[in-house]
Amino acid sequence: MGRRHALSTVSQQEDELRHLYIERALGEAWNAGEADTVADATVQALQALIAELAMLIGNDAVRALYLRALHVSLLFFDRTAPANQPLDALLADLRRSLTNHQPADARRAAQALLESLVTLLVSLIGQPLTLRLVTSAWGSPNLYPTKTGENGT
């Protein structure tokens, strides 16, 4: 029973860490009031991660990973671009799709897509390498956020 609890705790910590990275990737769009801001931040985050991945696995494999992540999170997206389009066209289609949602829905959709992509990467290459890739693409999340008190500190 102790081992099962330990594995569950590790899994929860990994989920929280992924969430922090995705929050970092979306930056100010996390609290944005405009779907356009969320769409731009999502595409920029994807482009940064794609650039890192393409050096390792090539553009075709990156495209396949993106399409799989999109498929997994498809309930959030209107699929209008054919899957055989270049990745830039697919990202433009993603941007259009996100801007057609309310900001909160766009954030949920962006989060679902990025989580799907990161989860796929973890399942394929493991947590340590995935974290190195997303850190390189998105920067390190603030693992120890500071709280401001009444005196402004």
What does this structure look like?
The protein is mainly alpha-helical and 153 residues long. The protein has one domain. Helix content is 72%, strand content 0%. The chain has six helices and no strands. It has helices at 2-26, 35-57, 59-72, 87-99, 103-125, 127-138. Helix 2 (35-57) crosses helix 3 (59-72) and helix 2 (35-57) crosses helix 6 (127-138). Residues 146-153 have low confidence and may be disordered.
List keywords for this structure.
153 residues; mainly alpha; globular; 0% strand; 72% helix
Return the structural class.
mainly alpha
Number of domains: 1
Strand element count: 0
The poorly predicted ranges are 146-153
Arithmetic mean pLDDT: 81
- Count of discrete alpha- or pi-helical segments spanning 4 or more residues: 6
What order do the SSEs take from the amino end to the carboxyl end, as H and E? HHHHHH
Proportion of helical residues: over 70%
Rg from Cα: 17 Å
Q: How far from one another are the termini? A: 43 Å
How much strand? Answer: under 5%
Shape: globular
Outline the biggest β-sheet.
none
